[in-house]
Design brief:
Blueprint lengths: L5 E4 L8 E4 L3 E2 L10 H13 L4 E3 L8 H9 L8 E6 L8 H13 L6 E4 L7 H13 L6 E4 L3 H8 L10 E4 L11 H7 L4 E4 L16 H10 L3 H9 L9 E3 L6 H9 L7 H10 L13
Parallel strand pairs: 3-4, 4-5, 5-6, 6-7, 7-8, 8-9, 9-10
Antiparallel strand pairs: 1-2
Length: 294
Amino acid sequence: MSTHPHVTLPADGGQAAVDLPAIGQGTWFMGEGLAPRRDEVRALQQGLELGLSLIDTAEMYAEGGAEEVVGEALVGRRDQAFLVSKVYPWNAGRDGAIAACERSLERLGTDYLDLYLLHWPGHIPLEETLEAFQRLQEAGKIRRFGISNFDVDELAAFHGLPGGEACAVNQVLYHLGSRGIDYALRPWMRERGMPVMAYCPLAQAGRLRRDLLSQPALLEVAGELGVTPAQVLLAWAIRAENGQREVIAIPKAVQPAHVEQNARALEIVLADEALARLEAAFPAPRRKLPLDIV
C-alpha cells in the first residue's frame, strides 16, 4: 500500500475495508468540449499513474459525457481505479435508479461501480432510493452506496432507514473558504466513521470563491513551503485531526502540471503553526450555516 495519506472506507455489506488516496480526481465539466477530449482522457490516466486512483463522475456531468471520457480513460485500466458515479434525484426511484445505473455502466464501459451516490436530495422517498441501491448491490452492479449534498438532518434521515447505516460517504462542497460543514455535519459523520468527499476543494465555488487563492495567509504558507496556494488548499482539506484523516478531496485537472501538483499535494505536511495561521484567517463557523451547494 502507498505510504501517501489515505482515508479508509470501513468494511460493510460484504465489502472489505478499502484504503483510498486522500486526493482523488473529479470530472465535473469534462466531456463538454472545454478541453480536447484526448487531454481529459490523458489527465485521468496520468492521475492513476500518480496514485490518484479514485475517479468521481456523475450522469449529470455533460449529461453522461464525462462518464464516457472516464470510460475511455479506463480501457485496460479498470482495476486501477475506484470508480464513483452519481444518480440524478429524479432518476433515483425504486426502478429508475437501477435503469440510470445501467446507463452509467454502459457509458463507463464497466460492469460495476465501486461507489454510487444520490447526487442531491430530491422528492423521491429515500426508502425507494435505498431499496434500489440495495438491489444494485445484491446484483453486483455497485459495491457501495452513499449520498451527496446532504446536510445533517437529511443525512440522519437516510442513515436511520433500515440498511441506511451502510451509507459509505457524503460528498459535499468543502474548502478553506467554505467551512460550514465543520459545525455540525462533519462531527456527526465523524461519530459514525463516515468519510467526507470534498468537491470544489480548490474553491471553484462556495462562500469565498475566487478570492481565496489570493488571500495573504494562504500565499504566505504556500511561499514558505515552496508550493502553490492550490496545493496548500488540498493539503488543508485532507489534514489529519486527532490522528484521523477523514476527508477525500476530488479536484478536477486537465493540464498535466495541475495533475502532478494535485498528486504532490499528498506529500505536503502542514505544521501546527501553519494550520493555526490558516485557522485564524479562515475560522470554522460558530453556528449552523446552510449547506454550501453548487
